[in-house]
């Protein structure tokens, strides 16, 4: 069975998981769920998907990845192109497409809906895109109708995507254009409707001509008055502070002088109050008289000194220990 899309004929293929192009395409798509968020080569992914569709045939997973690549590269037009291809494949060979297991198909549709919603939220849409939005919404409606008719997916896995497109279209449709200001139509006035002259010719002749008034020459603008010069403020010079050590020195000198005078006067008064004491030499009875001095034996004294000099330095310590 051949499927026609964009003047191309895609046959229905089988399980592509062993093909090199499918393995490379799956590696690119797995980057979407990688924690490091590496960049995806979307033109390369589209090229791999086209190669699989042309040489191997169409399967549901390859068409879903092709739709996502076209959405990333073409925006709303790419979404419409991918959904139309998937609708055509399901309408003609829906039950023969790989994978045929219902849980696998539901997961493919749900993942595609999630990724397409992310793409739409990143687009800078404007009211000028209303036609493309409506076209994508109609493609999605036809796709949902095919799913319900063939009972391929009991639940509607693309309902969130359809609701997002519908709300976006409704928001742009409800935008009221700026109302134009009404313009008054031109009024045509004929000569018959114009009133006559307000002053007759006779009355105009009686009116005395108004003498021409001589214009006074314009006075030159006065220059702004110069600001009055203010006298410079006189700064009163304060006397230099006296050195602090002079009062201290004067106080110390005065204190010493007063102290000296007071001490001198006190000593003079004390000496004048003491009575004179007469000192006489009296002999104390009972004491023997002074004996004459004994002669000194110098040689004996010298011998004793020599003996002391010959003694050991620690003689006194040794002698004390013997005692």
UniProtKB/TrEMBL annotation:
Keywords: Membrane, Transmembrane, Transmembrane helix. It comes from the Bacteria. Residues 11-109 form the ImpA N-terminal domain. Residues 205-214 have a biased composition (Basic and acidic residues). The chain crosses the membrane at residues 248-269. It holds the Pfam family ImpA_N. Residues 205-232 are annotated as: Disordered. This is ImpA N-terminal domain-containing protein. It comes from Klebsiella variicola.
């Amino acid at each position: 069975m051949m499927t026609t899309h964009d003047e191309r004929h895609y046959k229905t293929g089988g399980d592509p998981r062993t093909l090199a192009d499918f393995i490379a395409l799956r590696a690119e798509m797995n980057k979407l769920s990688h924690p490091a968020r590496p960049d995806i080569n979307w033109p390369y992914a589209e090229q791999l998907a086209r190669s699989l569709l042309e040489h191997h045939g169409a399967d549901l997973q390859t068409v879903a990845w092709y739709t996502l690549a076209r959405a990333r590269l073409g925006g709303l037009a790419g979404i419409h192109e991918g959904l139309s291809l998937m609708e055509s494949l399901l309408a003609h060979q829906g039950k023969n497409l790989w994978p045929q297991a219902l849980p696998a198909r539901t997961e493919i549709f749900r993942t595609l809906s999630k990724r397409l919603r992310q793409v739409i939220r990143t687009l800078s849409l404007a009211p000028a895109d209303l036609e493309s939005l409506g076209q994508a919404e109609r493609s999605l409606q036809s796709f949902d109708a095919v799913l319900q008719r063939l009972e391929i997916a009991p639940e509607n896995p693309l309902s969130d995507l359809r609701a997002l497109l519908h709300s976006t279209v409704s928001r742009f449709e409800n935008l009221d254009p700026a109302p134009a200001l009404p313009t008054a139509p031109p009024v045509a006035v004929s000569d018959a409707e114009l009133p006559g002259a307000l002053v007759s010719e006779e009355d105009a002749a009686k009116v005395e001509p108004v003498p021409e008034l001589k214009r006074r020459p314009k006075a030159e603008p006065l220059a702004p008055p110069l600001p009055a010069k203010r006298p410079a403020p006189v700064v009163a010079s304060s006397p230099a502070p006296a050195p602090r050590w002079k009062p201290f020195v004067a106080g110390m000198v005065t204190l010493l002088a007063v102290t000296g005078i007071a001490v001198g006067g006190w000593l003079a008064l004390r000496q004048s109050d003491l009575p004179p004491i007469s000192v006489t030499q009296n002999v104390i009875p009972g004491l023997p008289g002074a004996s004459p001095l004994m002669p000194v034996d110098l040689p004996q004294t010298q011998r004793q000194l020599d003996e002391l000099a010959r003694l050991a330095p620690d003689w006194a310590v040794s002698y004390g220990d013997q005692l």
